[in-house]
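PROTOCOL LOG
Step 1. Enter all chains and additional molecules of the complex.
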Amino acid sequence: MPAMCGRYSLVESGEEIAARFLLDAVPGALHPRYNIAPSQAVLIVAGGEGRPRRAELARWGLLPAWAREARLAQINARIETAAERRMFAGALRARRCLVPASSFFEWRRGPGARRPVRFAPAAGGLWAFAGIWEDWAPPGGPGVRTCAILTTAPNALVAPVHDRMPVILPPDLEAAWMAPGPLPADVLAGAARPYPAERMTLHAVSTAVNDARRDAPDCIAPIS
DNA sequence: CCAGACGTTGTT
DNA sequence: GTCTGG
DNA sequence: CCAGACGTTGTT
DNA sequence: GTCTGG
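Step 2. Run joint prediction.
Step 3. Record the structure below.
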């Protein structure tokens, strides 16, 4: 029963992303990403609620400022427990962000090898995953901004494939998620609610997406 | 008090 | 089997 | 998440 | 840095 939050895509143009997320600008040289994997630089949207919204790049794999070893990096945080986890509490309190996404992938077990499937918005467009970020630097080394994607229980479409899915924010919670200060209980509860299955589609994709070095349209193309 | 962990997913 | 790199 | 490596001594 | 275990 795999579902995951370990691979996704972001194929829209910088202009489309800026319009959808109310951004003045996005980092230069954004190009379509068909296969985004952990450890790579990903686009996040932070700020908002009185502060300007900022789109910037962060390394996917959250490391708290106190971490001494990069191998502690976490790509996901369970929304049910993140506030209680030493590793996530600080970021959840003060450094929440949106993670723009066109779709996410999961690998389903069938006869033989696991096969990838892709989940995308039924109406097209972009999702906002709920994220957290934190700056980290190795002892004596240069700093880097890092981030993680929150996860929650699966909806009815995802459940047969996997037992977790990313937290996808309903549009009316996006601004509240990014607001400064502690996360209000009602926003946390709303975010934890699995995104409606009816607003999501699923289709099989090629195992091309298995290889994190591959980043081409065949990673998202439907197959029979 | 100090020492040591600090996390998720998936698989068995 | 388990960890690292992408 | 999957793919691919999995090591040491010594030298720069 | 902060919490848990001893």
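Step 4. Note key features.
The two ends of chain A are 21 Å apart (CA to CA).
Chain A has a mean pLDDT of 94.
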